[in-house]
Write the structure tokens for this entry.
Amino acid sequence: GAMGIVYGDIGTSPLYAFREAFEGHDLEVTHDGVLGAASVAFWALVIIITVKYLLLVMRADNKGEGGILALTSLLPRGRTGRVATLFVSAGVFGTALLYGDGVITPAISVLSAVEGVEVATSALEHWVIPIAVVILASLFLVQRRGTARIGRMFGPVMVVWFATLGLLGLRQIARRPEVLEALNPVYAVRFFTEYHWDAFWALGSIFLVVTGGEALYADMGHFGRRPIKVGWFSLVLPALTLNYLGQGALLLDEPEAIENPFFHLGPSWAIWPMVVLATCATVIASQALITGAYSLTTQAMQLDYLPRLAVRHTSTTHVGQVYVPAVNWILAIACIGLVIGFQSSSSLAAAYGIAVTMTMAITTVLFMSVAHERWRWSKARTLAIGIPLLAIDLAFVGAQLVKIPHGGWFALGVGVAQFTMMTTWRTGRSAVAAEIRRGETPIEDFVRSLEHVEHLRVPGTAVFMFKDAGATPPAMIVNLRHNKVLHEQVLLVSIATADVSYVPEVDRARITPVGPGMWQVVLTFGYYEKPNVPAALANLKGDVTVDMSDVSYFLGRESVIPTPKGTMHAWRERLFVMQLRTAASAARFFDLPSDRVFEVGTTIEL
């Protein structure tokens, strides 16, 4: 499963990385240049993926979840000031940039594979775009089946793909074994001394060999650390190394093959099988960023950086395997739009990479902070390991800057827009929560105040949904103030989510009496379960029995009004109000019967 999901992105880079390093920068294909590019590609895989991500960064997980947002959540809590704010903002911005990368990855991966038909026959040249669009649409349609089922389908294909990469590379290495000299880092240095600044800008394309690194980290929650490591060292790294060296060996013999070196690795009769296999592999390659986007979205909602969206857990054994329909269809529309708009993988390559290089650099900075302050690494050890990695990341970022006017602006634009959405929601929710807390009343104080408030107790059961156990739901205060009534039985219901897939019915509810005819009820659901509140209340045991035919559900709804108070800029306040309207309905989320739900509004001025 991990092979089919995690390594698709990095495993399909051989389709275009070597080509773009030379053709994308009009570099002459020379003996030392080819060995140098192959050497840079190999050592990038070793340093960035093996050392940085697999051996270091993946040790930083938040309850098994990976990704830059999980890393951000590990930063020491309670720190205030500009530096702490800057670190958190950087983590959120890196997360936002990954969405930009997640839009481009499926488009460039599928398009680069389908373009292989042009090598086989020019007759299908005009069908490349329609075929790519159909493949992408099909890919997003199957996402609802879940990570595990998709991984079972894709895993065997990726094993065949990596085996083919290795065999194709070996075939060319056997003809020109001198290409193995590229394993010597001296040739990487010579690459820069021969091409000078042109080599530095080419670094932006050579970076494409490691673009799957951040997605690999983000997908850790879907499978765990060990399967990802085993897959890398046993198959993926050897296969990629052999293939990049094989492309180098081919170019030593046939410099003109740089137009599409991957599809020239095999014999002429193998082109069509290679196109079919490459297309299958690139469809799978898109999966790493798609599932990564689901994980990041779920984490962002849990950390209150995004409004509540419908999330479907697709595994009873892995809490991180989720499907987010809204994200799926937004990505689908954006990817298909990119294919139609950019028309070729070379054009998309100009837009690809800048977002993920920035995210990788931010990841290194955040990792250094977590290692020093949370793991108690000494400052010397942290700097000795972190600074060289950061220097490499920044070199890749610098090499990508030339791409901004040629398409890189798109990924940055997506990142900036997503960052604005996330920070606006966070700031707005904090302001609303502060307003609610300002008028919040402990339930004990509310119960004592009932002795001095004229009210009636009416038949039936009232269920007030409120996330803060121990506090009085604002909806109950407003209802009492205006209607002067309380039901004979009042349940204050809070919802908790456990780290296990299912919670036994016997452990579902924790009931605490808080006043005459009033109970605090905390319902705990497993991450895989849909929180069906009516079903849980129907099974309550002990002192509380609920007649489900006579229950009314009360929900609070905050109506936010933008004002000149200065909490946020006016345009951000309007954006936050729009976000509030798009958030998923709490009644639908908790499976409440619509004909028994009463929403009690509270007006909050920001």
Q: What stands out?
A: The mean pLDDT is 82. Strands lie at 312-313, 322-323, 456-465, 485-497, 509-515, 518-525, 551-561, 597-605. The radius of gyration is 28 Å. Residues 82-114 form the longest helix (33 residues).
